[in-house]
């Protein structure tokens, strides 16, 4: 009897979750002026439209608002500004042509730097071992060991 109740609850829960997923997956979130403005730079001053306080930026925000009211998507609005003002208006470089270097260069620098560090540390290790300094422990006699222990005990007694 208890197993049937648990099974019914699990089925009801899974149906409820399925309904929620189906109805919320179709929701499209409205595009905001700030969201679009954060992807477009002002021509000439390199500030984003969403944060610039000039009159020209206010005009661009109003233009974006009008495009949103017409039902344009963020991509369509950005493409419209790129067609009107050119590639320099886009806040992030495109991933094609010469701008591709801006996307690849940081990773390339990290890889080359890692190889360089590995090479240098490997050379240092070889030089260290060639000088006979590798993993050698100091060998001291038992008399010297006792002498050091006595000095250490004397120092402890001074402070304790």
From TrEMBL:
Domain CcmH/CycL/Ccl2/NrfF N-terminal as annotated: residue spans: 39-149
GO MF term list: metal ion binding
Keywords from the UniProt entry: Heme, Iron, Membrane, Metal-binding, Signal, Transmembrane, Transmembrane helix
Transmembrane segments: 100-120
One GO cellular component term: plasma membrane
Pfam families from the UniProt entry: CcmH (PF03918)
CDD domains reported in the protein's UniProt record: CcmH_N (cd16378)
InterPro entries: C-type_cytochrome_biogenesis, CcmH/CycL/Ccl2/NrfF_N, CcmH/CycL/NrfF/Ccl2_sf
PANTHER family xref list: CYTOCHROME C-TYPE BIOGENESIS PROTEIN CCMH (PTHR47870), CYTOCHROME C-TYPE BIOGENESIS PROTEIN CYCH (PTHR47870:SF4)
Family (UniProt): Belongs to the CcmH/CycL/Ccl2/NrfF family.
UniProt function note: Possible subunit of a heme lyase.
Name the record gives this protein: Cytochrome c-type biogenesis protein
């Amino acid at each position: 009897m208890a197993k049937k109740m648990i099974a019914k609850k699990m089925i009801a829960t899974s149906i409820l979750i399925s309904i929620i997923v189906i109805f919320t997956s179709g929701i499209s979130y409205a595009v905001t002026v700030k969201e679009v403005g954060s992807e477009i730079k002002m021509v000439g001053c390199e500030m984003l439209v969403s944060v610039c306080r000039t009159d020209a930026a206010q005009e661009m925000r109003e233009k974006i608002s009008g495009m949103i009211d017409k039902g344009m998507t963020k991509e369509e609005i950005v493409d419209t500004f790129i067609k009107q003002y050119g590639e320099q208006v886009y806040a992030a470089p495109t991933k094609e042509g010469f701008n591709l270097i801006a996307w690849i260069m940081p990773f390339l620098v990290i890889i080359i730097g890692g190889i360089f560090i590995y090479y240098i540390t490997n050379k240092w290790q070889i030089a260290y071992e060639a000088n006979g300094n590798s993993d050698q422990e100091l060998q001291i006699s038992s008399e010297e060991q006792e002498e050091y222990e006595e000095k250490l005990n004397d120092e402890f007694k001074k402070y304790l």
